[in-house]
Design brief:
By secondary structure, this protein is an alpha/beta fold. It is 29% helix and 25% strand. The strands form six sheets. The chain has a nine-stranded mixed β-sheet. Helix 1 packs across helix 3 and helix 7 crosses helix 8. It binds methylmalonyl-coenzyme A (MCA) and adenosine monophosphate.
Length: 502
């Protein structure tokens, strides 16, 4: 069994001087230099008493050093736990409390905020965007550790928190086998090789940027053109010297806004991948008209890595996410009876394979409730498999908003709003948004005799909720529409407020 870290070591042995990272205006970083840094960071982790199975929580800006830290954590057999840089203090408190990491690595600017954290077992270190901070200071003179902790496919590699319908985030535990099998399937399916030059503009604390994009380049020995954020004009400039872009639908919506997106601009590119949220069919078609290239849409989940993909050769169909990846089984089942449904019928998308996670950290009951008895994981997405064999996602059985590729669970936002003074209750919905796909929107009902101000509500939410979870608009209403069972009719609200961002 090889781990992602061991596969990287193999690639580094072959590609020594080749650039692993290229960054506009900054020096390249070769595979050999990266390998040296991973070794030194692995030594530092050992010196900090990080043992196999320990969690290492990391909330840092995107940098090559952060990727090196990820590989070093795998090298020592610990569990990598990346956290969105947008998370605020109360959110971090929850993750640290739940995962009980041995080490927490934060941005140097946050060190004082987190200094209070060290309890019996927790150490806080820092890593800055420019490769600065206490961790790198320690690594400067360290003797590289070359040997990897022996890991089997079922050993734990990472925990990624995903919000829950109950409002409580769940840590999805991913094994080395999950990461390696999925990376291998994607390398093969998308014909990704050492000759590729990947424009990497995604954040590295989620599956898409870390376990799809970075793992593929690290394993294949490819070069990443590593950008700290997505800028459409910059990405168009870089296409002349790149081969692949992986992005969320918002990337493509924004690229299409530029007149400079042309067949000529994309002539060197061989593949555009979209995922994490539905790609608008009209964007798919417009992109093909403008560039002559069909975006390849794929479908995945934090709990399952990638599940299905449109073909590399063959039709990439707008509105479809393709077929199950090799080794992965997808079926459509009835929500209540669990009966497997025939082709063409809409039901819950369920998945089984080496890509499917072990379970939720410390939540055996929650884990059990999301698997069928025969081991299929219930995604909570609604879909159907057409006569053409392509999977289409037609909706969600879970109350979830996906904004610019980030998941927001309404329950969590509603709980935060309901706790504010003067609020009786609230409903949070996703509404069509021209840039983000869906925008988080709140409808708030004041207590009798109280008045609530939408701007004040937004301001009060700012300290406790990550920015992407905060409602873009807040509406005040006298009451929420309910059915006879008393359940809030969110479909009705979505209809009523549909044109908010038009
Ligand atoms: C930024 N803002 C957002 C978002 N991003 N608000 C809602 N949703 C967002 N996604 C806020 C900013 O804080 C700012 O707020 C305002 O919106 C405008 O920011 P802007 O500069 O336009 O944003 P940006 O920095 O350009 O970011 C937009 C983005 C980014 C490029 C779409 O959100 C992004 O990189 N998303 C990718 C997420 C991702 O990697 N998802 C994969 C998850 P204000 O104006 O108030 O200050 S993995 C996954 O889902 C599965 C497994 C899968 O299948 O891949
Ligand atoms: P996350 O929990 O961040 O891993 O997000 C996973 C969810 O994103 C899935 O359950 C889907 O609802 C959604 N998703 C991912 N890829 C696609 C896609 N290509 N089309 C539609 N929805 C998608």
């Amino acid at each position: 069994m090889q781990t992602i870290e061991q596969n990287f070591t193999k690639a580094a042995a072959t590609h020594g001087d080749k650039a692993l990272f290229e960054r506009p205006g900054q020096p390249d970083i070769s595979f050999a230099a990266m390998q040296d840094l991973v070794g030194r960071l692995a030594r530092v982790l050992g010196d900090l008493d990080v043992a196999p199975g320990d969690r290492v929580a990391v909330q840092v800006e995107k940098s090559p050093e952060a990727i090196a830290l990820y590989l070093a954590v795998l090298r020592v057999g610990a569990i990598f736990l990346p956290l969105n840089t947008a998370y605020t203090g109360p959110e971090i408190d929850y993750f640290i409390g739940d995962a009980a990491p041995r080490l927490f690595v934060c941005d140097p600017a946050q060190e004082r905020t987190h200094a209070h954290r060290p309890g019996d077992a927790l150490t806080v270190q820092t890593l800055g965007a420019a490769g600065d901070g206490t961790l790198m200071d320690r690594a400067a003179g360290a003797a590289p550790r070359a040997d990897s902790h022996a890991a089997g496919p079922d050993d734990r590699a990472a925990i990624l928190y995903t919000s829950g319908t109950t409002g409580r985030s769940k840590g999805a535990v991913l094994t080395h086998g999950n990461l390696v099998s999925n990376t291998e399937a994607l390398l093969d399916h998308w014909r990704f090789t050492e000759n590729d030059r990947l424009i990497h503009a995604l954040p590295i604390f989620h599956t898409h940027g870390l376990f799809v994009a970075a793992n593929m380049a690290l394993t294949a020995g490819a070069t990443m053109i590593f950008l700290t954020r997505f800028d459409a004009e910059e990405v168009i400039d870089l296409m002349a010297d790149a081969t692949v872009l992986m992005g969320v639908p918002t990337f493509y919506t924004r690229l299409l806004k530029s007149d400079r997106l042309t067949q000529k601009a994309t002539a060197n590119m061989r593949l555009f991948v979209s995922g994490s949220a539905p790609l608008l069919s009209e964007d798919h078609r417009a992109f093909q008209e403008r560039t002559g290239m069909a975006i390849l849409e794929r479908y995945g989940m934090t709990e399952t890595c990638m599940i299905a993909s449109n073909p590399y050769d063959g039709d990439r169909i707008p509105g479809a996410v393709g077929m199950a990846l090799p080794g992965v089984t997808v079926r459509i089942a009835d929500r209540d009876s669990a009966a497997v449904l025939p082709q063409g019928e809409i039901g819950l998308i369920e998945v089984k394979g080496p890509n499917v996670f072990e379970g939720y950290w410390n939540m055996p009951e929650k884990t059990a409730s999301e698997f069928r008895e025969d081991g299929f994981f219930i995604t909570g997405d609604l879909g159907m498999i057409g006569e053409d064999g392509y999977l289409r996602i037609v909706g969600r059985d879970k109350d979830l908003v996906i904004s610019g590729g980030y998941n927001v669970y309404p329950k969590e936002v509603e709980e935060a709003i309901d706790a504010l003074p003067g609020v009786l209750e609230s409903a949070v919905i996703g509404l069509p948004h021209p840039d983000l796909g869906e925008a988080v929107t709140a409808i708030v009902v004041p207590r009798a005799g109280a008045t609530v101000d939408p701007d004040a509500i937004r301001a009060l939410l700012a300290d406790g909720l990550a920015r992407f979870k905060q409602p873009k608009r807040v509406f005040v209403a006298d009451a929420l529409p309910r059915n006879v069972m008393g359940k809030v009719q969110k479909a009705q609200l979505r209809k009523e407020y549909a044109d908010t961002y038009a």
